[in-house]
Every structure is written in structure tokens, then in C-alpha cells.
Amino acid sequence: MERIFEFARDLSLLDGISSREETVRNYIVDKIKDEKSCSYLIDNLGNLIVDKKGRKSPENKIMIDAHTDEVGLIVSYITSEGFIKVHNVGGINEKVLLGRTVKVNGLTGVVGIKPVHLTDKSKSKDIPEMDDLYVDIGAASKEEAEKYVSLGDSVTFDSEWVQFGENNDYIKSKALDDRLGCAIMLDMLLKEQEYDLTFTFTVQEEVGCRGAIAATNRVKPDYAIVLECTTASDIIGVSGEKRVCSLSGGAVVSFMDGGTVYQKNLYKKAMALARERGIKAQTKTMIAGGNNARQIHQSSCGVKTLAVSVPCRYLHSPSCVIKKSDVEDVINLVNELVLTFADD
Amino acid sequence: MTDNELISLLESLCCADGTPGDETAAAKIAAEVMNRYMDVKIDNMGNVVARQEASGRHYLLDAHIDRIGMVVTAITDEGFVKVGACGGVDTRTFDASEVIILGVKPIYGIISAIPPHLTKSGENKASDITDVVIDIGMDKDTAEKYVTPSDRVIFKSEFKKLLSSRVSCAALDDRAGVVSLILAVDMLKDKGLKPNLTVVFSVCEETGGSGAKTSSFSANADEAIAVDVSFATAPGVSAEEAGELSKGPMIGFSSTLDYNMSKALVSVAEKNNIEYQKEIMGSKTGTNADNIAVSGYGVKMGLISIPLRNMHTQSEIVDIEDIRNTAKLICEYIASEMGEC
Description:
The complex is a heterodimer. Chain A is α+β, with helices and mostly antiparallel strands. Helices cover 26% and strands 25% of the residues of chain A.
């Protein structure tokens, strides 16, 4: 397990907004390039597709997927005073940017905000919209800013890897969605597997699950397991079904989300398997969110697809929070699912 | 003082805690440095008071040592930590921010954020402080071992250098002012001047200014200058309501300040080629100056502000050069008053 968290730390701290996943891809390639059981290709979109030789060939072709991109910002304009205007890449609530530091080409920038003292009282709780946000790198003029920053450059969260809680059983970092999924897959690639498997590290999930379409069309699997992080709202101020899923609740298997209606028998099989094997699993109590399953299940000739996720608080923020025990549950369930799907 | 010395002093002060009523950590750092120049004591309120007895007019320089933060009010049944404001925090910047709870030991936490899918469109509002909770990854029993109501909470903020001489951190309000006063005293020493001087790093400015009220009463000075931060222009913050970053100290003009002193500060700045700007306020300045002026039998009062962006957030921004020029202005002002120029 420790190795997975080391990979997750390294991978989550790499910067790679959608369509700029190169550093993430390179990290993974570097780790697997000498593995005799692995052969890989990088497709035209930047998807990294790795075939892993197992002890046996399965009846059914199984693909396991995680996405390499993360949400972030892109430089859209530089004002005459040297402030940098941005667009979001993927869904980001402005609230998690205000007053925070971000990274631009190795520089520190600050997402500024009009002081609350100068804000009309009736508007003092209003959140500025993305169009009104700007990044301040301390440039005194447009010319100075342009020495360091160009339109189209990436802006990413400035966030450290932190373990916390009494026994350090919680982790906070940026981009755990979905570098944690990448880390789990990387660990599987470096371990002996019972069956041949294909792993897809896909691009552009945060902007419409685009990379997964081409990757699936190439792999043409019978089964796909999407490894993800999904929103857990088990916090104060949210109760009942609105919590969706909980940290400590184990692997999250959805029957339906914002992007996919999962095959009911597959969902039931996964939950039954978890019960039988004593693996903690839970489902989502709201139909919300979405992931690469959205595209994978309806690509190629159609794919039996399941998403198995780590519950994650504060998703799409600089401070994604997960619990280590849930990661263990996800790994155990995925391993069991592989054995089941192989000869189903 | 070199730029590196100045920056490292500012960094150590900004990274120290010290919310209202609990300023010890920052006060200790400031007191140690001031001790090199003057006799230092901590008074009943917790103010750092540095004194240099000499003949002539007695000058008081004030900057506040406290920083905004939060205070733990309760632990919920699920182990989340509820807080109250300790100074004027801005909850718009709270969601998913990292904090340190100063409990039995420093406890890392994240301010909880309700995900967007549970927010109705058009309702993207900042929370009231009473709804803010901190996630520390503990259940109630565990949390209670480490955290108690009254523990203070600060943002986990790193000191960052931006382009040119600009820096960003929490607590630059008013640790930047504290550094400017230390630097001013350093400059006076370099000039060989020994004014009759009291320097106070006062507590509880962010919660009403009790520190400056009492320390100025004790000092019983003839005239005083308060140094605080003020708004700098940025998108949405116009030149009408703010000064400009990197354009020098903002000399206050207000009906609660001494008009002649404001003008004297301007003339000292011009005579010494110190870049400055004027900050015009109709009545109260919202700083310790308001209280110091009417302390004791009354004190002739001036105010200098260091321009700052993103006030009361975890990423305030100042320019080191503005701090340096503030110090220079104070030093030259006292020098000219002493007839040394």
C-alpha cells in the first residue's frame, strides 16, 4: 500500500490540465518501461494504453481505466496592469480559488479578491464569477507579465501532499481525482497478474471524457472498470441521501450517475462480491457526477462497464481529501472483479 | 538591514500565529528583535513595548501584532470543529482552505465545503461564520483529545515571493507594519539619532484596538504615528478607493488625524525623495490611530499605511519597497522634528 501512496503523491503533485497530461504520462511510462510483462503505446490524443501480460489469457477482454488530466485554469488575457485573466478547464467552483495561491509557469500567483471592507454589505457574501477572477503574479505592467506568461498557458492549484488525522489515515492533495486511480493502476502493472489486462491512462476526462472514447475504440474490451474519485459530501450541513457517499464507507459502486446507467446485474454482482469477500463497499445515494464510464460503455461495440471509486471530499479543489482505508477497499474489489469478469 | 534580512524577518513574523488575545508567538519574535535596539517589556495587555528614554518630544510608533483568525467554539458529534471569527475574516475565501488549529499540538484541518451539485444555481454564496466547519479527519472523542473551545485557528499560508519585490502571505496585515517600525528604528540608529521614543506592537487591533488604547495611555507620548496596511488597487478596486501597490507609503489625511502632521509627513517625503501617496479619509481611519489620538490627554496623531492587496485573506500582497519607504519616511520625519536635517 505504501508504494501506491508514494505514486499518488508524486502523480498528484504533477501538473497536467486536460490535453496537457504529458508529465503524468511520462512518469508512468518511466516506471513501466523496463517491465517485461508490459507493452505500451501512446495514441494520437495522448492516451497511454498498456497491455499487461498475466499468467493466463481471460475469456473476456478486460480494460481498467483512470484519467491523467486534472481540473485547472488556462490564461485567456493579460490586462494592461499585468493581471492575468483565466478560463476554467473542467468544473471548478470559484470559491475554492479566491484568495488562494496558484502556479503559472513555475511562478506563484494569487487569485485576488476585492477586500470585503470595500464590498457593499448586501453583496459581501456574493462569489465573483470566473469571468471576474484574475491571477496576480506581482507584475507591475502588461509587458512585465508577458515576459513570464503567454495566452494559453496552464494555471494549476498550488497544493501540497499532506497526511493528517490522528494516525495520518487521511490524505489531502490536489488532483487526487484521478491521479489516485492512476497510482492504483501503476501498482497493478508492477505486480504479477492472474490474467492479461489492458490499462488505459486517458486524457481529457474533465472536459467531456474525450480520451476514453478513442482508447476504448482501440482496446475493444468486453468489460471495463473505471477507477475514479467521486464526491463524498459526508460533512456537517449535509444530511441523509445528500451526503451521496462517505469516507470510511469503502469502495463506491454506482448503479446510475449523471453520465451512465450501469447494467443492473453488473452492479448487483459487484455489491454481492464485496459482501462475500468482506470488502467494504457502498453506493451513491444521489444520481450525480459522472466519469469515463459515460463514454466507455457506449464506445467500440459496447462495453460492460462498472465504476469503482474512492470517496473524496472537496473534489475539484486544491484540497481533495481521501481516507487510506477506502483505497484499500477499492483495490481489493477491483482485484476480485477482474477474477470474476475474466471467465464470466 | 539588507533585503534578505528584511524578508526573512517578515516571513518569520507572518508565519507565526498570534490572533487577538493570543499574540504571544509573534510578540516574542518582535520583542527579541527590538531588544537589540531598545528596552523591551510585555505589558499587562500583552503589548510589546520598547522604550528609549531621552530628552525632547516623546514619539510613539505603533503597529499591531495581532492577525485575524478564528476561535474554536465547539466540536460536533461527528468530530468536525466549529468556529467563531477572531477579527474580520472573509468567508468567501474559506471553501477547501487549509488551516492549523492551535490545539494541544498544531492540528491540520480543511475548511469543509459543500459540493456544487448540492447548491442551487444562483445560490453560490459564501457561508456565514456560524456555518463554517473544519474537517480534521477525527471522530469526536479523538478530536477532543487535541482540540478545545478557545483554541485559535489560523490559515496555513506560506510566504511566497512574487515578481520584483512583491510578496504574498497571510498576516501581512499588520506584520508588514511591525517590520517597517523595526526598520525605522534600525535606520534611526544608523543615523546616530536617539529620540525620546516608544515603539509598541499592540494586541487586539482586529477586535477593536484595546491594545493601542491602553499602551498609548501608558506611553503618554506627545505625538504618535500608527502604521497599518491599506487597500491597494486591483481589478474591481479603483484608484478612488485605494492606493497603488509599489508607489510608496500612503500618508493619511483624515479629520481624526493632525492635519499639520499629515502635511509635515508629505514635506519630509518630498524633501527626501521618498515616493509617497496620499490617503484621504473623511472621518475615522479604522486603525489604531483613531484610539491613540484620544488616549490620555490627547496625542498629536499621524497615520501611514502600507498598500496591500487582498486584505484579510490568506494571500495578502505587499511590496517590500513600500515597507522600506515607510520606514524611511518615519525615520526622516523624526530626524527633521529633532532638527537633524
